[in-house]
Design goal:
Oligomer: heterodimer
Number of domains of chain B: 2
Number of helices of chain A: 11
Order of helices and strands of chain B: HHHEHEEHEHEEHEEHHEHE
Number of helices of chain B: 10
Number of domains of chain A: 2
Strand order of the largest sheet of chain B: 9-1-10
Largest sheet of chain B: 3 strands, mixed
Radius of gyration of chain B: 25 Å
CATH topology of the largest domain in chain B: Alpha-Beta Plaits
Helix content of chain A: 40-55%
CATH class of the largest domain in chain A: Mainly Alpha
Structural class of chain A: mainly alpha
CATH class of the largest domain in chain B: Alpha Beta
Strand content of chain B: 15-25%
Distance between the termini of chain B: 69 Å
Shape of chain B: globular
CATH architecture of the largest domain in chain A: Orthogonal Bundle
CATH topology of the largest domain in chain A: Cytochrome Bc1 Complex, Chain D, domain 2
CATH architecture of the largest domain in chain B: 2-Layer Sandwich
Largest interface: A-B, 56 and 84 residues
Largest sheet of chain A: none
């Protein structure tokens, strides 16, 4: 074979070997394992840490709270929505929420575009910007009187049974409203002097630590909640003894007074 | 050929074989890699032979899934918990301008047939949120009569024929076998062609890392049999996710039971996010 052919072959071999070695060294090995991309990147993306833990993850850490949440109307709101993310594997630090007026209104402020099925609150009217925690338990926010009939509450009070676990009505709409016997607002006013110490007379109560705004509440609401305190289905160290000292007529009078108070919405 | 044997005692087959390999190798190198050459040169990577799965993710068979996403706009309450959870899950910057998933509001004020559109990035909505790590819609239409208004959650459509993948010059974004369009942040050079190519505005630029970013359907969760973070936290069940290969999955039933539509079907990308309850102006 002529010498120049041998040199050409040798040159081609060297160039070819350099290209093969160069490609082997420069191109990531998983490239084109599945397509025109680095196969290992899929593995890397799939291995990223899970940070928003499912609510079932919290169960072993906070069984009692989890149970209350799981049986309440808010069981569609996952723990992380209010309490922040938790990396799976880490112990969740349950943060006691302070700014509930802000957190709750993320979903419940009156906002154009929200479906009418979503409960929407005008906070200024509803509670004078108090913390929602003052009345509602965020884990099961339905007030215990809501959706119950007074007869049922009275029966619960007499039997002392605890069938009524707070807010367990599971999001169903309230049954047909019972027509309450209308009370005497004037009699109610005389009795309400005690209430206003904490609940205020004006539209906005005097301090956040005080009780919720009562003036302008519907009579159904005031009456039902007082009956719920009587029956013990809504617990409060302050309100339970007060409510237990009231007769049904007195409750109706109070409800009538607050419903017709000056700041009727 | 006889003279080769005389001058140099080389094995003819070895020479031919080597030349063939070298030629293919050179072609592969010049072309930036071709499947055939790769198959000759190197076996599949070790990760692909993981137990319990076929594909690059250990314990997960990506040939058995075809993921799909549903949005029921009639249920969305615009609380934006999805956007917050997404940022927490995927380490997206907490500012009102970078989102893997977001929500838009379409409002038709009385007498107008053109919707007013705002999102959490609207200045008034930023002011309503008050904090950079929270997002909310204000009640801007309180004083006007609104004919209809609704929220539309948006995210990457994980298209069947994604334009973003087509334009990527480095193979940094790609369509995985199970349907997710993913981004290899190590290979992304930050040229942003994909951001321009996407008809849905689903991609954004991560200034911190100088790469493009977008929704992955929480690929690290769905490969562990978990729901994407936004689906997990949605209190209104407006987001539905599941396996289109399974006729009883949530997404299959959602598509079966509803009249669904996709955004901008005319672009030919073949989106895989299916909407219910949106209007003609939504795109």
């Amino acid at each position: 074979m002529p010498k120049h052919i041998m040199r050409l072959i040798a040159l081609l071999v060297i160039v070819g070997a350099t290209l093969v070695a160069g490609r082997y060294a420069l191109v990531v090995h998983s490239y084109y394992a599945y397509g025109a991309y680095r196969g290992d990147s899929v593995t890397e993306i799939a291995a990223l840490p899970v940070q928003v833990a499912p609510s079932s993850y919290y169960k072993s850490f906070y069984p009692a709270v989890h149970e209350k949440w799981a049986t309440g109307i808010h069981n569609v709101v996952q723990c992380t929505v209010c309490h922040g993310p938790v990396t799976v594997g880490a112990t969740p630090q349950l943060v006691k929420l302070e700014n509930t007026a802000e957190i709750c209104t993320n979903c419940h402020a009156v906002t154009a575009g929200r479906p009418t099925s979503q409960p929407q609150i005008n906070v200024a009217k509803h509670s004078g910007k108090q913390e929602c925690l003052n009345c509602h338990d965020p884990h099961s926010p339905l007030l215990t009187g809501k959706g119950k009939s007074i007869a049922a509450l009275a029966a619960a009070a007499s039997e002392g049974d605890d069938d009524f676990s707070g807010g367990s009505s599971g999001g169903t709409t309230a049954p047909a409203k019972e027509k309450l016997p209308s009370g005497n607002a004037a009699l109610g006013q005389a009795r309400a002097a005690v209430c206003t110490t904490c609940h205020g007379v004006e539209k906005i109560v005097r301090s956040v630590s005080a009780g919720p705004n009562l003036a302008g509440q519907t009579d159904d609401h005031v009456a039902l909640e007082l009956h719920a305190f009587q029956a013990g289905t809504r617990s409060s160290p302050v309100m339970e003894p007060i409510a237990k000292g009231l007769s049904a007529n007195e409750i109706n009078d109070l409800a009538a007074y607050f419903a017709n108070a000056a700041n009727k919405k | 050929m006889d003279r080769i044997d005389e001058d140099k005692p080389l094995d003819r087959r070895a020479v031919i074989g080597f030349l063939a390999k070298a030629g293919v190798g050179a072609a592969a190198f010049l072309c930036g890699g071709a499947g055939v050459a790769n198959a000759v040169l190197e076996p599949a990577p070790a990760g692909s032979a993981a137990p319990g799965g076929s594909g690059p993710v250990p314990g997960y068979d990506w040939t058995k899934h075809r993921w799909g996403f549903g949005v029921d706009a009639t249920r969305c309450i615009g609380c934006l918990r999805c956007a917050v959870a997404c940022k927490q899950e995927n380490n997206v910057a907490f500012d009102p301008h970078h989102f893997r998933t977001w929500v838009e509001r379409y409002a038709y004020v009385d007498g107008s047939d053109k919707p007013l559109i705002d999102s959490q990035a609207d200045p008034a909505n930023i002011a309503a949120a008050g904090r950079p790590d929270n997002y909310r819609f204000d009640n801007r239409y309180a004083e006007v009569k609104v004919d209809k208004a609704f929220f539309v959650p948006k995210l990457c459509n994980h298209c069947t024929r994604p334009a973003c993948v087509q334009v990527c010059p480095t193979g940094a974004t790609y369509k995985s076998v199970d349907g997710a369009v993913l981004i290899d942040h190590d290979y992304c050079i930050g040229c942003r062609y994909c951001i321009q190519a996407c008809p849905y505005g689903a991609r954004f630029f991560n200034e911190e890392r100088q790469v493009t970013d977008k929704c992955t359907w929480c690929y690290h969760r769905i490969t562990k049999a978990m729901m994407p973070a936004c689906v997990e936290v949605c209190p209104a069940s407006a987001r539905i996710f599941g396996d289109l290969n399974n006729p009883h999955s949530a997404i299959s039933e959602f598509i079966h039971e509803n009249r669904v539509e996709v955004l901008r079907p005319e672009t030919g990308n073949g989106p895989n996010v299916f909407y219910v309850g949106i209007d003609k102006e939504v795109n």
